[in-house]
Amino acid sequence: MLDAHFLKLRQRDFITADEERAIRRSVSDIRELRPDEVLVRAGDEIDVSTLLIDGWMARSKLLRGGQRQITELHLPGDFPDLHSFTLKRLDHDVFALTQCRVAVIPHENLVRLTERFPHLTRVYWFLTNLDAAIQREWTLSLGRRSAKARMAHMFCELFYRLKIIGQTRENSFAFPLTQADIAECLGLTSVHINRTLQALRRADLVRLADRRLTILDLEGLLKAADFDADYLYLDRRER
Amino acid sequence: MLDAHFLKLRQRDFITADEERAIRRSVSDIRELRPDEVLVRAGDEIDVSTLLIDGWMARSKLLRGGQRQITELHLPGDFPDLHSFTLKRLDHDVFALTQCRVAVIPHENLVRLTERFPHLTRVYWFLTNLDAAIQREWTLSLGRRSAKARMAHMFCELFYRLKIIGQTRENSFAFPLTQADIAECLGLTSVHINRTLQALRRADLVRLADRRLTILDLEGLLKAADFDADYLYLDRRER
DNA sequence: CGCGGTGTTGAGACCTGTCAAGACGTGTGG
DNA sequence: CCACACGTCTTGACAGGTCTCAACACCGCG
Q1: Helix, strand, coil proportions of chain A in percent (round to 5)?
Q2: What's the pLDDT band for A10 if we cut at 50, 70, 90?
Q3: Contact, A239 vs B88, CB < 8 A?
Q4: pLDDT in tens, B156-175
Q5: Computed from CA positions of residues B222, B228, B232, B234, in that sequence, does the dihedral angle turn out positive or negative?
Q6: 8 A C-beta contact, residue B205 and residue B217
Q7: Measured in angstroms, what separates residue A194's CA from nucleotide D25's C1'?
Q8: What is the pLDDT of residues B16-60, one digit of tens each?
Q9: Which nucleotides of C are covered by protein (CB under 7 A)?
């Protein structure tokens, strides 16, 4: 049930069977979330972290005026609120974009886990640093990429991240976001997302229909995005 | 010499004298950096981390076309490349904005330090999560704040971060950045930075002259920025 | 059958970028 | 001591990207 999580970890480091068992035993509960259900509200004290099993989630921040920015998308195998382990409360919301299934891991179990396995401490520290790296790339996108490049970049990132957890088929993957969701990720309006998406379609780079994204020209999309997968740290090594 | 660092830590957690000594002993070397000198180049393998003692540094990412985005500013007491401890290489450059003095801490010393003091592991894990929180706030700025609000927000952030390390005087602080530097932080052009800065001046919110920024109307600036210091995690508690 | 969510389109406004030129201060070399 | 180069700041005119507002099509679902 945590398969995606171990695929993600083993893409980056070596995890022993012992460690895997210990991680699996740390789960205290399995929960279901409905689309738009908020898992963590900004500011709340929390003493558990949550591992995403199925579905897509997101982190988002709100402005006084009600404008919302999604700062990261979370896919199966991700730990959307692992950083609450040291932060104790979060500066952003965490919510479900789709129907989701999650595994709950109390912080006290994480304390035990990381004390018994110093290596896993570094692995999970690495995961929060990886989230930061992804956010950093988004910062670059928002600051310097055009709407078209931003969107292309987002599609490339999702493709690579889904691929390592076995959720792509050829060059396509299930894509549950609405255009309004994409707008909140890319710092644009949904109207402009619509037009930008049409530009990518007209350039024969992607097809998006029936909640499925197909990359028609991966080379072209990577180039349009100025995409370099380095920031996803896909190499396997001791962390 | 690491005073700013301990001020920063003790604002967020309780650090014992024992822990402080151990941290100080982890430093292997002191180095000077000239303005614009690159400390870490994206992609380089590294086995040391660097604690900033004096001066300002920054993390930046580059686009193929040469456009640059600064993703975080680093002030005295910061650990601009602590995340390399688990990442092993970085996805961004780290460079000196001004003349700087830094303390070098080899990763092997960090391994010893964190194994001997599990609490310090969480403290330094917390620090990388704090960097991520700051970056997340910048993502929100770039995605949803206007040029004016973005600039106001940056000034507020710097004010709070400098204040806890004792580098403000009343409502002012030394501000070494050029308008071109600000542009790279805020995802704008230097021409527009110039005009936006004039707008803040005309609104009697700030004065910027002789490399010193004075906040004339803190309330007004906070409001213009929609600033909320929560994301800086300024509360002192066990991490 | 009607409704809400989603996607699409058009027209015009506005924010920010581009390009170009000049002012100013500082440091350097002649 | 002056001439000059260079970095930084400033300003103007114009272009272009993205937003706003509004309307409508489409579809699944109650």
Answers
A1: 45, 20, 30
A2: very high
A3: yes
A4: 999 999 999 999 999 999 99
A5: positive
A6: yes
A7: 15
A8: 999 999 999 999 999 999 999 999 999 999 999 999 999 999 999
A9: 5-11, 15-20
What angle separates helix A118-144 from helix A17-26, to the nearest 10 degrees?
70
Return the exposure string of B145-163: e unless at least 16 CB atoms fall within 10 Å of the residue's CB, then b: bebbbbbbbbbbbbbebbe
Residue pair A50/A109 in contact by the 8 Å Cβ criterion: no
Residue B210, by phi and psi: left (phi above 0), alpha (psi -120 to 50) or beta? Answer: left
**Amino acid of residue A42:** A
In this prediction, residue A231 carries a pLDDT of: 98
Q: pTM of this prediction?
A: 0.96
User: From the CA atom positions of chain B, what is the Rg in Å?
Assistant: 18
Task: Work out whether strand A38-40 and strand A93-96 pair parallel, antiparallel, or are unpaired.
Answer: antiparallel
What number of other Cβ atoms are within 10 A of residue B43's Cβ? 12
User: CB-based contacts of B147: which residues, under 8 Å, 6+ apart?
Assistant: B186, B188, B192, B193, B196
**So what's the pLDDT on residue B114?**
92
User: What average pLDDT is seen over chain A?
Assistant: 97
Interface of B with A in 129-188 (CB under 8 A): 129-133, 135-140, 142-145, 186-187
Which residues 6+ apart lie within 8 Å of B110 measured at CB? B26, B49, B85, B124
